[in-house]
Structures are given as structure tokens and as C-alpha cells.
Amino acid sequence: MFEKVLIIRQKTKESEAVIAKLSGSYFVVWVKDMHAALAYINHNTDIKAIVLDIDNPEISAEQFLSIISVHSSYRRMRVILVANSEDDVRIAELLKAGAVDFVTKPMDSTSLKIVLDRHLVNNNFGDNKIDNDTNMILETLFKDAPIGVAITRVTRLEDGENLQTVVMNKTYERLVGRTSDDIKNHDWQSITHPDDIAESVELFRRLEKGEISSYSRHKRYLKPDGTIVWVNLVVSTFDQKREGVFSYVSLVQDITEQKTTSNLLNESERSKSILLSHLPGLAYRCKYDDDWTMLFVSQGCEKLTGYLAEDLLFNNRLSFNELIAPEYRQSLWQEWRRVISQHLPFTYEYQIETKEGNRKWVLEMGEGVYNEQDEVVALEGIIIDIDHLKKMEEKIQHEADYDTRYDLHNRGYFERLIEEDIKLSKINTKALVCINFSTIQALVLSNGYHYAMDLVSKLAKALKVFEDNEHQLFVTHENRFCFYVDNYENRGELVQFFEKIKEAVEPILLLERFTCGVGILEVKDVRYSNADRLLKDGLISTERALQIENQKVINFVFYDKVMQLNIEREKTLKEELIELSKDEEARNLIVHFQPVIDLKTDRVVSFEALARFNSPTLGVISPLEFIPMLEKTKLIIPVGEQILTRSLKFLERLNKSGFDVSMSINVSAIQLLSENFAINVLQKIIDIDVNPTKIWLEITESIFANSYKRFNQILGNIMQTGVRVTIDDFGTGYSSLHRVLELNTNGIKVDRAFINGLELISEDVAITKDIVSLGHKLNYLVVAEGIENETQLKYLKAYNCDRGQGYLFSRPLPEEIALDYIKKINI
After folding, report:
1. What is the spatial distance between Cα 547 and Cα 103, in angstroms, rounded to a whole number?
2. Has domain 268-390 been given CATH number 3.40.50.10140?
């Protein structure tokens, strides 16, 4: 909500209508051409999306995307194209060049908002994954909320000035007596009561410094007409990881009436009855009996129940117990009995039936009145109408649990249902029939996102035909569904159910020529402790079904022992790696060394240390399998130290043999974040007696996806010791070309994805030379990995790549063979 969007287009009535539509959800800035856009974003890097008309005559869309793609300041800006539908070829090229989506002309505000919501709202609100419909609900709640809400964002510009953006709802404007434009021109201290400023300033200072993330207090606002408003203020920060931006939300509730009420209560006990008559809801004093016989009832009774206060007094017309909805009477009595026995305050939500026959949710708060013998002589309290809050809560919960696109309950709701069945031991009578339409994603590129989603909706409609009490249907992902089956007889019945599904969806699949995988999981065969594991196994079975190659468009598999064996294999591997981490001289940890060649001299100038694991029970395990397991369990820290030690000892041996070479060692993000990592590396270098400048630590660039600033600072500290740093798999990770100007590194290793196939394409098309050139311009050492043939080598030499490695030169070698290799090459 309220992210900044830049529209680049000639201003027309159509554009103005779109801007007016979007302004309710986003900060919209309009410029007429790309020159003005580039000038604006140069000083406003907090723009989240750019809506670009590709027919702009000033600068081509291709040039604009090229400029956006190489500048680090624009790394997060998503470009959404506006184009004619017949420009499909050009649209596809621009999407490859960096645009993330498009809408067709004439530009429709509703379609554009849906696209923006998908790319901004769903990506900017943390890990909750709230869908577009839910965000529209939240926007509506923001505007119409009964409490004041203000969102403030302060952007620190390069010229030292701050750009303050304030968005507030109507309730906030009413409480402070000013509009958002007024607030921009007033320091918040100027509208705060003088007696409340000191404490407010201190709390806000701590918030701004990050010492606290939120605070709450009562304070007074001064309206322009001089009147005072008491409020309960809650201030909380968000977007804390965004550099140069300080954002916070303020929630304000008018408590002037409550403050007045409180003062009246303290003023005199004699005014108690008058005060109670003015409280919202029903204030009461009653007997502790089955009818809750009323001794006193405030005048709020009529508004709450429809009955006059005298109707309830001494059960004159009816008892209060008769007002309580029947299903709550027993539980209400039990709760009162519990709190009375412990002298606790009473708080309970339940429903009453009003005089008009309607049901209403109420909140009762009270306590017992005791005599000197500790006997209950009466109950006193207040009953408040919370019906509108409950309905709002139910509506929000429904939206959170329901996918309106498919008219089905979502995964969150499904997980809670499964967890409840596990808790009540009902799970063993269940089965899952999971349907995976993930191959439909291929249609997005050819036919567009909306076409693909409309097709999934059609499939969902076909599946809903089979939904009943024993076959509940849920959407677990954008293109995955699951039937929760109960009380089935045997596998044959589940297969018959699959055949029905197949008959319904196969014609749609055949028409669009894509496949579907169905996984059937009988819960009784496996003991599950949580819903996530259950749904994960269901997904695994659908993926296995998709892998079946038999020319059928839809296949199914039962989750079986083979899949279970894979899980057990993972468990065995984990246990063996734990043992490996404890043994510093573990023989089943094998370190091989792959030569790195200077492409100008054809001599070995370095080796890369590559680990292998020889499992006692599973055999030789690929790094692609055991390294992720090490990282997941954080065993990569002790095992990584073993690899580092062996690598440095081999480097020492090479140096003593007269070879002036270096050693590259792969390091994971977990190792970098471990305590005293740089100090430990330096200590090992000193103990083994090798030159720190001959050590290269290879960091996969995907680690910068999170905590970029922190990782970059750690690398800078490492480089100060003399140890070199290189970025591995360059070009495939987290916005490399955007971040490259800021990276603390000595070199880059071009990922094999940019080397494979060089012999099959024109040199003008290949971008590998551009990556090499970029690295050299930044004074980085450039290494190419995965060189497998002479054509690739010739290309890299022609464009002055510094170093290379790959099977064309040598596979990773055991230590002795690696030593023989360098003796042979570096004669």
C-alpha cells in the first residue's frame, strides 16, 4: 500500500483517469517523457514501479531498460510496459530485457492496478503472502477505520534534504483537525500539547534511532480552533531494512470521552449512577444466581438489547439469562464460577438475542462483590456491543482464509483443519488427492498471465463438481489443488475418484496441450506430526507424477515406500554429516583441487578446493546434495574449517615446491555470519604459514539477496587482512549488475551459464564479453568457469578474460595428481 509509482506517458484524459484510480492505493508521479523520468528517479530512488509507454518518441524503451539495468540505484524498480496487443514480439523482447509485466492499450486502470498489486503489494508485505483481494480489503479498512491511521515516510535525499510523505485516513484528519497537506507543513510537536512534548520527543528519538520498534502512550493534540483532543497513540516503524528511508505508522484513538469519564469517576462516588447511565453499553449490578437477577441496569440497556432497563430489573419482564443465546448460557456460568473461585476479573465474549430477534455479539467485563465472610453478594460490570468488530474480524478472517479467485478455502485454512484433526487423532481416516497444474506456467509467456489464470479457474470449476462432505477441495497454491478425503474404503475407491477427476479435466488439458500430476497420499500409512510435512509429501507425489513419461496428459502416483526411502536417505545423510563434523581428520571428507589457468600464459596460477563426501552407507555424495544439508544444519561451520585447513596445507606444500600459486576456497553465508570468522581464517593462515594474499574466498552472489549491507561489510573486513574475495556464479544471483559498483570484492567468476553454448551463438549476441569488460572496468580479476571446448576458450581469450577453469583443462584432482599436473604444465 502507498508505494511510489512513476508513469511515463503523454498526459491524456485516459492517463488522468488511470492516475486518479491509482492514487487511492499508491503515490503516483506522472512525467511526460523518459528524459524527465530519468531526471526524477535520479533523486527519488524509492520508486517501486515504472509504468512505461513503449511508444514514447524521446528515448526507446530498449534504451530506457538498458539504463535501468546497469545503475545500482534503480535495482528495485519494476518496469511495467504499456503497449498495443499487436506488439507481442517487441513485448517479449522487452520482458527479456528487464521489464516484469505489461498491460495493453487502451490502458485500463483496473487491469493496471491488478498488475501493480501483484508486483508491489504481494512483494512488499513481508512473509504473509497476502493476496490482492485481501490488500484491497486492507485499503478499505485503512480509509474507513474508526481509528486514525497515518503512514509517514521520510526519504533522505543525496543533497541533504528530506522528502516527507504523509498518508492519513479521514479519522486521523478529523482528530488532529488538519489534512495531510497541512501536516507536511507542521512539525508534529506544534500540534502537541506543551505538557506532552518532552515525553513524546524522547520516545520518538528512541524510535528513530532504532532503540525501540514501537511505543504507546496517552497524549493531547491541539486543534487549530484551540480545542484539546485526548488520544491513545501507538507509533510503530516498518521498512526498517530500507536504507535512507525512515517509515512509521501512527494509530490514534479518540479517548477524550473515556478521559472525561475517568475524571467523573474520580470526582465523586455520588455521581456513579449518572455516570454509568452515560457509558456505552449496559452497566449492571446483579445477583449471583441462575437468572442473573438485575439489581441495577443503566440506560444503555435499550440501545444494546432493545429492552428498557426496568424490563430487566428484578426479572420484571424477563431475566437477563433469557437474553443470552442458548449455546452460551452454560459456558458463561462456568466461566463466572471459575473467576469467582479465584477472585479474578471476568472477561467474556458471547451473543445475545435482542428484542427485535437479532443476534448481537457483546463483551462482558465484571467482577464479584464479596462480604467480610468472602461470600459473593453481587456481580458488577459492563456489557459492550462488539458486534461490528466481530463482523469485521470474521470478514477479515474469511478473506485471509478464502481465495475468491477460485471460490475455495486456501492453504492457511487447510493447514489449520489438518492440525486440528491431528490434535483430535482424526487424521488416520483421511487421504489427500493433490492436483498439480504447474506446467500451465508455460502459457504465461505465450498467452499472458491472465489467460493462464483464467484457465486454472476453469480447471478449479471442473474440480468443484466433486466437492462434498467427504471430499473437501482446497487451493494450496496458485496452480495446485487438494481434495481432503474422509471415510474412504480402500485404494480402489481413491483410484476411482482420480478417474472422475481425469474425465473432467482431461479435455481442458488436451486442448491446451499441457500435463497434470496427481499425487494420492493415504495418511494412515505415515505418522504425521504437522500439516506442513503432510502437504509437502503430497506435493512430492504430484511432482513424481509429472515426471512420468508415457504420453498421457494426466498421471497419478501413490505416495509410497520409495518416496519414504528418499526421506530416510536424507535422515541418514544428516546423521553421517553430524559425525563427520566431529572428526577433524575424517577420511570420508575428500578435498580435490581443480586447476585455474592464466589465459594469457596458459600456466596454472591457482587451484579451487572442491569437497566430496564418501558416505559409509550411501557411497559418494555429490556436493549438490550434501552441501545444502550442511548449510541447513549449520554443520557447514565445522566442516568448512576442515576444508579450509586441508586447502591451506596443500597451498603450503605447493609454495614450498616452488610454485607461486593461490588457492580458492568456497565459503557459505552461514560461515560468514559465524562469530569471529575472519579472525579464525587469519589465525589458520598464520598457523600454517601461507601468504594471505594467496587466499581467495569464493562467495556465491546469491547471499546478497538478504542482509546485503551486513555481508558486504564482513567482506570488507576480510579484505583488510590481505585475503582476496571473489564473487562466484556471477550474473545469476541477486541483481549483480545493480550492486556490482558497491561490492567489496577483488574479482568475479563468470557463471558457466554464460560459457555454455558460446560455440553455438554469434559473438555479437553473447553477453559474456560484456561481463568480462564490466569486471575489468571495475579493476576486478575475471575468471570464467565451465570451459569445455576450444571455441569457448578462443572466445574468452579474444575478449581478454584473465583466468579460466573447466574440463577442457582438467577435472578436480586428488592432491598428488594435482601436484603432478602443475609440474607438467608449469615447466
Report:
1. 34
2. no
